[in-house]
Amino acid sequence: NKGDFPHYMLKEIYEQTETIQDAMRGRLSREEATSKLGGLEMTNAELRSVERIILTGCGTASHAAMVGEYIIEELAHVPTEVEFASEFRYRNMPLPKDSLVFVISQSGETADTLAALRESQRKGHRTLGVCNNVASTIARESDGGVYMHAGPEIGVAATKSFTSQVTILTLIGLLLGRIRHMSTTEGLRIIDELEAIPAKVAKILEQTDHIKKIAEKYSGAHSMMFLGRQFNYPVALEGALKMKEISYIHASGHPSAELKHGVIALISADVPSVFIAPDDSVFEKNVSNIEEVRARKGPIISIATEGNTKIEKVSDDVIFIPPCPDFLSPILTSIPLQLLAYHTAVTLGCDVDKPRNLAKSVTVE
Ligand code: F6R
After folding, report:
1. Is CB count within 10 Å lower at the N or C end of the chain?
2. Distance of CA 227 to the CA centre of its chain
3. What is the pLDDT of residues 103-148, one digit of tens each?
4. Is 12 in the pocket of ligand 1 (CB under 6 A)?
5. Is the shortest distance between the CB of 246 and ligand 1 below 6 Å?
6. CB 101 within 8 A of CB 71
């Protein structure tokens, strides 16, 4: 049931104020300043002996995994790697004995992800699921895991499942950090910041009309660039994927600094660039990259932090997000990009919920 929404995708984008909360519900302990993830079915001693983490999945889930790599390394200092499930199953990557593998899948039925799970288990690694569908094959076959509790995602383009996955990966980072080196004070600060996220998401959703105008302005583009650094590099990939999937505009995501190594050849007055440039440790670096694009007359749409006046001077259009710590910014920055893709596709008359050539769950290799 779409309720008052014209499309499932828009409904699901709006549900994120709740689904992010649902991903955290009952899982945060102020008393111990950490997260509680009983579904992992691992003792603290077992979690402490984890030497390496592998995150795998396909499509949007692989982008959430890439954000998770930055988050887990930042919060827990555990070496983390991401591999596409389709590559993982054939790659035969050498892994230390104490590796922990997470397979991430909204549907829990993606063929490549399921095959990665089975291959990982065959090699003897503890393999956990991050799934939304509790009745799925991956949920059943994994050695434990964390459910998203996001409710059914009907729109073919993944939206709320991405932010749920990133929230859960943050809880995993917090848990692993707290049993290693992280202080109580730091743990509590992270809990406060996590709990503040849903209200910030609501503030972003209020800007839908502003985002719609930007979408209309650039909907004639034949190609778009999405650029970000650090935690927001995977968000650039995800923003580009959303745009391609539902509007059929060619889009590609890159780490901002890679521009000058080739991508900049594509920049012209009719190729807009979306820069994900919140107030983080690499903001100034992003601004230098924006200047490089401006010098080639490329239009700039920035996703930036409220109150930043510098960004307005170098951008044609800006969408603001509320301030937050660097590692939580992907949850906020991904939302304007979902809305940008949505409004662009609607403007172009595309079938947003059922884009051509795509299926919600890819159960073939
Ligand atoms: C993107 C999208 C796909 C899925 C991918 C994995 O909008 O929907 O890229 O993310 O097919 O699906 P799950 O998470 O069900 O394994």
Report:
1. N
2. 14
3. 999 999 999 999 999 999 999 999 999 999 999 999 999 999 999 9
4. no
5. no
6. no
